[in-house]
Amino acid sequence: LFPQVGHERKVQLVADRDHLIRTLSLKPLLFETPGFLTDEECRLIIHLAQMKGLQRSQILPTEEYEEAMGTMQLSQLDLFRLLDQNRDGRLQLREVLAQTRLGNGRWMTPESIQEMYSAIKADPDGDGVLSLQEFSSMDLRDFHKYMRSHKVETSELVRNSHHTWLYQGEGAHHVMRAIRQRVLRLTRLSPEIVELSEPLQVVRYGEGGHYHAHVDSGPVYPETICSHTKVVANESVPFETSCRYMTVLFYLNNVTGGGETVFPVADNRTYDEMSLIQGGVDLRDTRRHCDKGNLRVQPQQGTAVFWYNYLPDGQGWVGDVDEYSLHGGCLVTRGTKWIANNWINVDPSRARQALYQQEMARLAREGGADSQPEWALDRAYGDARVEL
Ligand SMILES: [Ca+2]
Ligand SMILES: [Ca+2]
């Protein structure tokens, strides 16, 4: 049923030409379409993004994190057990590395963890492993103090880029509308789903920019709610996450050096979180280990790559997050890299997605300031005139 890797099929996305869809991997289900955008469209998107202005994609949220850790009411022993994935009663470096949240936005490497250990004297025998005794005698306040005082370079962040959002709904620039229609044809999803998805995110990576490997959607737990449908959910739940059924990523320029998109575990036979980090090599690290990832896509202006972030639930709807969709932006070694993301939002709760679509349709009929989802209100550049 699934196309083989390398399989190509023709589709008609625009009136005057055919496009090719090439299968890049089955896990995740990943494809590429060269020439999805014309060079002129790429330049226009970059231009609109520059006119609007880009902001830093990540800043460090220090105090909030400490507070959150404090309110979790986790004893130090609980924390130890949580971290000790292989339950051998010791914390190996990779078990600490796997908990990216401990880094509080700062990307942890084997070196930075050992640096931290020695600064707070957490590993007196210096073997890089924390025994239960070593962990118990460590004062977590020293850890927080260290994280707070440590000056973080942008190269040490999980994500080192700038971005902005471009509106694509009714009244948007005609090219932005045309791209949304093309995405609709590419994905063969319903117009309601595509039209009610996030605006286009435009991202610029300067020389030295990167985005370590991550999945685009959060996990599906009962206590989690999707950002896009939360307006219709009566429940108040503690966690909010992006529910991005599909990612459609566009390369807006040719990058002089680096900047590939890496899928470290694409088409692995099995997925094992711990095997991502072995022998001091963290395959999620896109500054150092992109070359060891299973699949790398070279940026080529106008090409779209697209994949599914969720597995099917077997009943025609969205199931669990597909761990194989792990991907990242490799270090840009030379020049600048411009990409754009169209995320297609679907709530794993079919009922909530339906309710959301109904409510949005009702608001659109009634008109008024509330007639668009929150993210659609930003349409100031809708009538921007740009020379193509
Ligand atoms: Ca362990
Ligand atoms: Ca030790």
UniProtKB/TrEMBL annotation:
<keyword id="KW-0408">Iron</keyword>
<keyword id="KW-0812">Transmembrane</keyword>
<dbReference type="InterPro" id="IPR011992">
    <property type="entry name" value="EF-hand-dom_pair"/>
</dbReference>
<keyword id="KW-0223">Dioxygenase</keyword>
<keyword id="KW-0479">Metal-binding</keyword>
<dbReference type="InterPro" id="IPR018247">
    <property type="entry name" value="EF_Hand_1_Ca_BS"/>
</dbReference>
<dbReference type="InterPro" id="IPR005123">
    <property type="entry name" value="Oxoglu/Fe-dep_dioxygenase_dom"/>
</dbReference>
<dbReference type="Pfam" id="PF13640">
    <property type="entry name" value="2OG-FeII_Oxy_3"/>
</dbReference>
<dbReference type="Pfam" id="PF13499">
    <property type="entry name" value="EF-hand_7"/>
</dbReference>
<keyword id="KW-0472">Membrane</keyword>
<dbReference type="InterPro" id="IPR045054">
    <property type="entry name" value="P4HA-like"/>
</dbReference>
<protein>
    <submittedName>
        <fullName>Transmembrane prolyl 4-hydroxylase</fullName>
    </submittedName>
</protein>
<dbReference type="InterPro" id="IPR044862">
    <property type="entry name" value="Pro_4_hyd_alph_FE2OG_OXY"/>
</dbReference>
<keyword id="KW-0560">Oxidoreductase</keyword>
<dbReference type="InterPro" id="IPR006620">
    <property type="entry name" value="Pro_4_hyd_alph"/>
</dbReference>
<keyword id="KW-0847">Vitamin C</keyword>
<feature type="domain" description="Fe2OG dioxygenase">
    <location>
        <begin position="196"/>
        <end position="346"/>
    </location>
</feature>
<keyword id="KW-0106">Calcium</keyword>
<dbReference type="InterPro" id="IPR002048">
    <property type="entry name" value="EF_hand_dom"/>
</dbReference>
